[in-house]
Write a structure and sequence with these properties.
This protein is mostly helical. The protein has one domain. About 85% of the residues lie in helices and about 0% in strands. The radius of gyration is 19 Å and the shape is globular. The model has no long low-confidence stretch (mean pLDDT about 85).
Length: about 260
Amino acid sequence: MLKILKYSFFDLMRSRWSYVYFAFYLLLGIVLLFLNNDLSKAVITLMNVIIILVPLIGTIFGVMYYYNSKEFTELLLAQPLKRSSIFLGQYLGVALSLSMSLILGLGIPFIFYGLFQSSAIWDFSLLLVTGTFLTFIFTALAFNMALSNENKIKGFGYAILLWLFFAIIYDGVFLMSLILFEDYPLDKLSLVGTMLNPIDLSRTLILLKLDISALLGYTGAIFKKFFGTNFGLITSLSMLSLWVILPVLRIVFKAKRKDF
């Protein structure tokens, strides 16, 4: 698995799209710091970009890599190798290369700007941690969609639809549910509903860490009471980890039973 991971990782690092992805975040970080002297405000702006863009890129790269390397995968399957090692190696190679581009692309300009001497270092660290989690989550979901659909168009379409659901549709349905049942106590429902969406969970964690939960009103007070504690932070990170583990387990399960 490590050999396949190494091959996939370096294969993607040689890809021009990896350089484009890295250059985009590098340029974004430089421009934000040039226009704004406050690191905390720059982190807030980055949050709005990362929360939407990182899952989308992870989804697209995951699906594209699976279909583009399908012939090589079939060659590997003909060898005395475990299927789980092949697909986990490819998945980790994609997720790690994307995460590395994100961390280096944003980290380099912020470090040169004096991040280590700023109080915003913990906010920025949480931003990178949640961005890395989202990369691993949506890359795994993309691999699942590709494994479940031989047709490239269907696999790509379902993967984009899944991202669209978590990024936009889920929030609309969740908000309508809160409005319809506003006469009932919705504290626990709000917390559970947030944890069932990795994008919402990541956004809430960053907003509360930046101490701007007052903008969320009553809901913000509920989230602050739970997510603002150490127990809430550990629970949230555990949920994000679970969002990574479950799709990865399904990749292994699906790969072992799929007829190639």
